[in-house]
Amino acid sequence: MAYTEQRAYVELHLAVFLWGFTAILGDLIQLSALTLVWWRVLLTSLSLIFFVRITRMVREVGLRRFLLLAGIGVIVALHWVTFYGAIKLANASIALVCMATTSLFSSLLEPLIVGRRFVWYELLLGIFILPGIWLIVDGVDAGMNVGIAVGLLSAALVSVFTSLNKKYIGSSDPLRITFIELGAATLFLAPFLYSLGGERFWPSPTDWFYLLVLALICTTLTFFLSLRALSKLSAFASNLTVNMEPVYGIFLAYFLLDDAQELSPNFYWGTLLILVAVFGYTAAMRFVRRRARRLLL
What we know:
13 helices; transmembrane helix; transmembrane; membrane; EmrE-like
């Protein structure tokens, strides 16, 4: 059966929908954010061993690039710890809305990291997102503000490691890159597990089930589906679809968790404003690119 563009859309939407479950699973797993992330990166790394040649990895990738990718893996680890930390400190809905601000941080940080010029419509995005953040802060209990701050830090870390990946991965094998980055994340987080004190390290039977779903289905499988879909779809279509992750996640959290009882209408107005800004950003990019093509003709 031929791999068509329509099938690629279906697989990418499935991957994004499953990514929306990561916040739900993070809320359900009764482990600290640090322990949860360590088990996730460990299990995902182990699942990729069969797809990479470990003995030749450093020689084929090159020591410098290997160390760069390992460093990016440390940033990925910090992103996931802060993401699940935001869930534990606030709730899944708040953590997901914070992730919708990644475009704002990318507009500010990517030019500095990659070395390109600032784009006016990307900076304009930030102006529209900031009132949304204010409404969200105003729409939750003050005790959740720390969770919001940690969630925004997590979104900033996403923009950092995404920009670094764009700059350094080149034509490397995506599966190998993922193994190096998540393997480095596993080793980086391991020493910090000793600082947990009396907190539980071993997952319960229920936690094991959720962790396996998180690692094998919501990480390894979605990574495979998204990469295969990207080979067929345009960058714009892919980015527009990926922007649906917080929408799916918030929708799932509303029905599967008790988040709605903790949030006021201002939270949802702020969320709507941020999502309008994010999708408006992609529309603006499409408009600017079309206009640029017409000027060149």
